[in-house]
Specification:
The chain contains 16 helices and 22 strands. The longest helix has 35 residues. The chain is 31% helix and 19% strand. It is globular. It has three domains: 106 residues; 426 residues, LarA, N-terminal domain (Rossmann fold, 3-Layer(aba) Sandwich); 100 residues, Immunoglobulin-like. It is of the alpha/beta class and 658 residues long.
């Protein structure tokens, strides 16, 4: 059978990868030995840390190959001398070494050692920035969001490892900064108006009664790690390794729902949440439903809908995604259907995760839509990726100006074109392999801690460009030994999404089959360096990306505290019980001075929910009972203030209302 030009091209590349492996292996071994033997402390140098994986991989390759041959030879001569036990032992050793050699050899053509810089220089933007603040990406980081070290048997989504109050604070800060508004209702109104004007090419219109929002989340591993018979219960999973994969964080999504429902006033029944290709883990579903029972938690399965409280979604009547390669690159993916509920939604919000990928190099909002079509899997889309074959981490499609399905996804009027807000959840940064649990990152400013970060933008190209810079810095062979975000052309799709001058010859991106090619979907560029993290708008040198950083911002309760003469420490040993609470709470504290006491309940979006004043409390231990009858379930700050004519003091505690 005659091979296609593409197959011959890949085969030719594989030979070069193997030759490169031998050349780099020999060079790195010689370099490492020359530098380290005279002075062993040099082994900690960054250049030595980068060379070590190449050297060790090359040495393992040689040892397994030569060792298997020697063991086979020893087994042969032992058998001739009737030394059967030794012959059998050597045969087993030979087979084991040969197997290790075969596995290692199959990875030689992966070219893990080859770090290829992006083709465009730093701070050279391409494309047209979008957004209320064009090209703005907000990066909000708060180290109080997570617990640094997990107790054995807990996971990134376990309640004890997360501080939901901080998640709400971060989501609030991000939306306000993205829009430059002072309150959430105005901020979301501006997001709706901007999007409607852009989408419908008409005057600005805010959210209208009855409009539907689809929140696309990432729950990719749940379909094979949990069982429908248990309601997709993680605790009853027999495969918890991948069930702990870095994917949708329930508290990030809860914070978003809180804003849409409690701050903006969107009816719960007008919101869908789901990952159509997969299912929602029971633990996430139970958490969200306890606060917002009428939100539609989407599932393609009738059984999940009838038995486990999910909302059934249905496949669209006809294909709505038309891939612009027309079958030349992805022969099994000419068109795709999605789900009617996604197709007819008025708005979409895309929440992806910050992690690398063994086929695409990175996986962010565009890759998140590999879960939006109606097929059972996404392998039909893999031929367009940097690592296109069934073998993982095999970046043979690493040239620029190749067809990239991500561009069609980002340009589709049903997917990227219908998304009003793009969010990358980096609270827990992902590993080099998308199916692994999250890990603590080494690059500054994380320095061995969780990322504790949210990234948000209206410009999908700008957002993914920023997250790509973070990923390629963390996975650069030094901060982490894996380098898949640094394969060649990982950002090719961002070039093409930004500018049609970057499109491959013979490809015209028209994912809606409308006869009209897509325009620029946003702006792309790389930062100046990994320390300063400055883009052209930060530097004042161009009209590209602006990265706005918010770090460890205090939770502002000053709006609820009258001007005071002097703040001193008056309150100690404050507590609120029970917690979680149902209909009543008891607030206890020790006051060092007499005065009046006011207790405020503040919602996580900053709204004052209630306040109750006790005109006089003496010095000493105090106990105040409060009714919660008119308080909705949710997360609150219980703010205790004691004041007199000379002094004032306050303490803030977390309160969970069931």
């Amino acid at each position: 059978m005659e091979h296609s030009p593409t197959h011959r091209h890949f085969h030719h590349k594989k030979r070069w990868y193997k030759l490169s492996f031998f050349a780099l292996g020999i060079a790195s071994t010689v370099w490492f030995l020359i530098r380290v033997i005279p002075k062993p402390s040099r082994a900690t140098y960054p250049c030595m840390r980068a060379a070590f994986p190449l050297m060790s991989s090359f040495i393992i390759y040689l040892i397994t190959l030569s060792g298997s041959l020697m063991a086979f030879r020893k087994a042969f001569f032992s058998l001739k001398k009737s030394r059967y036990v030794l012959a059998g032992t050597m045969t087993v050793v030979a087979i084991a070494l040969f197997y290790a050699y075969v596995i290692h050899d199959s990875r030689v053509n992966v070219a893990k050692a080859e770090i290829i810089d992006p083709s465009d220089a730093p701070n050279t933007p391409m494309g047209v920035a979008t957004g209320i603040m064009p090209g703005r990406v907000v990066w909000c980081r708060d180290t109080a969001a997570t617990k640094t070290n997990f107790r054995s048997g807990t996971y990134f989504f376990s309640p004890e490892n997360n501080n939901p109050i901080i998640y709400h604070k971060m989501m609030r800060e991000s939306v306000l900064k993205l829009t430059e508004k002072s309150n959430l209702k105005d901020a979301w109104e501006s997001l709706f108006k901007y999007f409607n004007k852009k989408k419908k090419n008409q005057e600005e219109v805010g959210y209208q009664t009855g409009e539907i929002i689809f929140v696309k989340i990432n729950q990719g591993t749940i379909s094979w790690t949990c069982s429908e018979s248990t309601g997709w219960d993680f605790n009853k999973s027999s495969n918890k390794k991948n069930a702990g994969a870095c994917q949708g964080n329930p508290y990030t999504i809860l914070a978003l729902l809180s804003q849409l429902i409690d701050s903006v006033g969107i009816p719960q029944e007008n919101i869908y949440v789901g990952d159509p290709i997969s299912h929602i883990m029971k633990q996430h579903f139970d958490l969200w439903k306890s606060y917002y029972p009428n939100v539609k938690y989407a599932d393609k399965s009738s059984t999940s809908a009838s038995q486990w409280g999910r909302t059934k979604i249905n496949v669209s009547n006809q294909a709505v995604l038309h891939y612009s390669d027309k079958g030349t690159v992805m022969p099994n993916a000419v068109t795709d259907k999605i789900y009617k509920e996604m197709e007819t939604a008025d708005y979409m919000i895309n929440i992806a995760n910050l992690k690398a990928h063994v086929r695409a190099g990175i996986t962010l909002c565009a890759k998140n839509h590999f879960g939006s079509h109606s097929r059972d899997g996404a392998s039909h889309l893999h031929p367009s990726l940097v690592s296109p074959t069934d073998q993982e981490s095999n970046p043979i499609n690493n040239q620029y100006k190749q067809y990239r399905v991500f561009v069609d996804i980002m340009g589709s009027k049903y997917l990227g074109g219908n998304t009003m807000l793009f969010i990358v959840d980096g609270i827990y940064g992902g590993d080099y392999h998308e199916l692994n649990p999250p890990r603590r990152w080494n690059m500054p400013p994380f320095n061995g801690d969780w990322c504790n970060s949210l990234f948000m933008s209206q410009d999908q190209v700008a957002l993914e460009s920023v997250c790509f810079d973070f990923l390629r810095t963390e996975y650069n062979g030094v901060n982490n030994s894996n380098i898949n975000p640094n394969w060649g052309a990982v950002d090719d799709y961002l070039h093409q999404a930004a500018s049609s001058t970057e499109w491959p010859v013979g490809i015209t991106y028209d994912p809606d089959n409308s006869g009209t090619p897509i325009g620029s979907l946003g702006v792309h560029e790389h930062w100046n360096n990994a320390i300063d993290k400055k883009y052209s708008r930060n530097l004042g040198t161009g009209s590209g990306i602006e990265l706005v950083k918010l770090e460890n911002q205090p939770f502002d309760t000053s709006a609820y505290i009258p001007n005071s003469i002097k703040r001193v420490s008056l309150i100690i040993q404050a507590s609120v019980t029970p917690n979680p609470a149902t209909d009543r709470i008891t607030v206890r504290f020790y006051s060092k001075t007499p005065g009046s006491c006011t207790i405020y309940l503040i919602a996580t979006d900053g709204r004052l929910v209630s306040n109750e004043t006790v005109p006089y409390v003496g010095d000493g231990y105090q106990q105040i009972d409060l009714a919660l009858n008119n308080i909705k379930p949710g997360l609150y700050l219980c703010h205790i203030k004691v004041a007199n004519s000379q002094f004032t003091d306050a303490q803030t505690l977390k309160l969970y209302k069931k």
